[in-house]
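// run 5 | inverse folding | seed 20
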């Protein structure tokens, strides 16, 4: 379950979550894992059993954080190819009570097919948003930082382990 196949020119690459994690580090593990699962779900919906071509994919991300950006870049090179756009005001998946930030992502093919993948609203506990707020405000204590690190690790592991239907909503747009 922690693998994605993608075509780059004429080569089919097998990308494992562990490789994406090495690329990103550990700053935004929850987002990294959720983003990985978003791509798996979107590719299955858009391409069925075919391997998508990197050049075919564009991404609209409702979340501007580095975890989502890094997984989408590593797998699709969408950021480098300028096929990646962020809209934190995207209307679905607005769960953060303190700021506009969507947990919805639209993955599109150059032929016009598109799928919207949204994280389920109950995946992240309310304390997750409290830690984000404290981090932005610079009010996080050492114990908060450690609890937040542990929470992100737990959310990462959970995102990778949950069945897709318990983690994500998938809606075909075109």
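// decoded
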């Amino acid at each position: 379950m922690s693998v994605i196949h993608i075509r780059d020119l004429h080569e089919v690459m097998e990308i494992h979550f562990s490789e994406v994690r090495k690329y990103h580090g550990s700053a935004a593990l929850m987002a990294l894992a959720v983003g990985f699962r978003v791509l798996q779900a979107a590719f299955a919906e858009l391409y069925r059993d075919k391997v998508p071509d990197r050049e075919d994919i564009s991404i609209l991300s409702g979340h501007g954080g580095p975890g989502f950006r890094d997984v989408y870049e590593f797998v699709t090179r969408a950021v480098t190819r300028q096929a990646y756009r962020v809209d934190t005001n995207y209307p679905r998946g607005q769960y953060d009570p303190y700021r506009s930030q969507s947990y919805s992502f639209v993955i599109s093919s150059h032929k016009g097919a598109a799928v919207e993948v949204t994280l389920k609203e109950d995946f992240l506990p309310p304390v997750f948003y409290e830690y984000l707020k404290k981090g932005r405000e610079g009010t996080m204590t050492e114990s908060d930082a450690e609890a937040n690190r542990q929470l992100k690790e737990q959310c990462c592991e959970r995102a990778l382990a949950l069945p897709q239907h318990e983690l994500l909503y998938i809606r075909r747009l075109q």
